[in-house]
Design a protein that fits this description.
This protein is an all-alpha fold. Helix content is about 65%, strand content about 0%. It has helices spanning about 10-15, 20-45, 50-60, 65-80, 95-110, 115-130. Helix 3 (about 50-60) crosses helix 6 (about 115-130) and helix 4 (about 65-80) runs antiparallel to helix 5 (about 95-110). The mean pLDDT is about 85.
């Protein structure tokens, strides 16, 4: 870290205006790499937007996806895996509504970056997850 750079705070990671800052993007990437699959495996059968979350995950990992879109996708995925969010996921019925809203807004904004092959990979992964359960 250079002497002029500031450490990244938890508030920075959650700030959408800082989603494309390289240090924030790297933190989100690490958080998603560690937490996405364990959480999606636990929750896929309970959340109606699992296919959207998986599509975003596949798009964020695609080298063809533009860096700016990846930064925003990683921010949404990091929000999904964070244990603390606006509505705790422990509340049955409403716990994932904030996560669903984040994915809906992301797809409305960046849907063109989520290609058919990302959606197909998401469908296949979701089918495998459901047969495991």
């Amino acid at each position: 870290m250079s002497t002029r750079s500031q450490p990244v705070t938890p508030e920075d990671v959650l700030d959408p205006a800082k989603a494309l800052v390289p240090s924030v993007q790297k933190i989100n990437e690490v958080r998603v790499q560690r937490g996405f699959w364990p959480k999606i495996v636990r929750t896929a059968a309970r959340i109606p937007f699992a296919d959207q979350a998986l599509s975003v995950w596949f798009a964020a990992r695609d080298p063809q996806t533009p860096t700016a879109a990846k930064g925003m996708m990683l921010g949404a995925l990091a929000y999904f895996v964070l244990p603390v969010d606006a509505i705790p996921d422990l509340f049955a019925g409403i716990g994932f509504t904030d996560d669903a809203a984040v994915f809906a807004a992301l797809i409305a904004t960046l849907g063109a970056n989520i290609k058919r092959h990302h959606r197909e990979a998401a469908e296949q992964a979701l089918e495998r997850l459901k047969t495991r359960a």
